[in-house]
Amino acid sequence: MTHAIEVALGLITEDLVAGGVPLPRIEPSTWQDWEPSESVMLFGADGSGTGVWLDLGLSQAHGLAHLADQVQDWAVEELARLGRPTNWPVCAAHPTNHPLRTLVEDGRAVWACPAGGTAPLPIGEVSSGEKRPSDR
């Protein structure tokens, strides 16, 4: 795994942990041939895999948001496979309605309520604002 995607996945992994999402097995891969990019495979407990990639042509914030969006898709599928609620990361203002979405705000990659109900959380800092499954 290269340094840029490793750092970005480290932030996103913090958010997976905060949300009680099982962590994927991450394996380096060159499946994405877009230049410049870095890619890896995420594997769930059942062995199913999904490729995710970091577009190195984007700003750091936009690249992180793009990667987080892909990992969110993986997490939703993994949670559904486990029979758990799929609204990750949980929106504190609307915990049963929708997950947070990724966007770039003021030059930072954040998770934000699509309805504008809460202050955005920087990617990597979900634990500061998300209710964990044990808190519900």
Tell me what you see in this structure.
The structure is a single chain. This protein has 136 residues and is an alpha+beta fold. It has one domain. Helices cover 28% and strands 23% of the residues. It contains 2 helices and 6 strands. The protein has a 3-stranded antiparallel beta sheet with strand order 1-2-3. A 3-stranded antiparallel beta sheet has the order 4-5-6. β4 and β5 form a beta hairpin. α1 crosses α2. The C terminus is likely disordered.
Shape: globular
Query: Which ranges are low-confidence, i.e. pLDDT below 50, for 5 or more consecutive residues?
Result: 130-136
Q: What kind of sheet is the major sheet?
A: 3 strands, antiparallel
Order of helices and strands: HEEEHEEE
Brief synopsis:
The chain has helices spanning 3-18, 60-81, and strands at residues 25-29, 37-43, 49-55, 101-105, 108-112, 121-122. Helices cover 28% and strands 23% of the residues.
Key descriptive features of the protein:
136 residues; alpha+beta; 3-stranded antiparallel beta sheet; globular; disordered C terminus
Architecture blueprint of SSEs:
Elements: H1 3-18, E1 25-29, E2 37-43, E3 49-55, H2 60-81, E4 101-105, E5 108-112, E6 121-122
Antiparallel strand pairs: 1-2, 2-3, 4-5, 5-6
Helix pairs in contact: 1-2
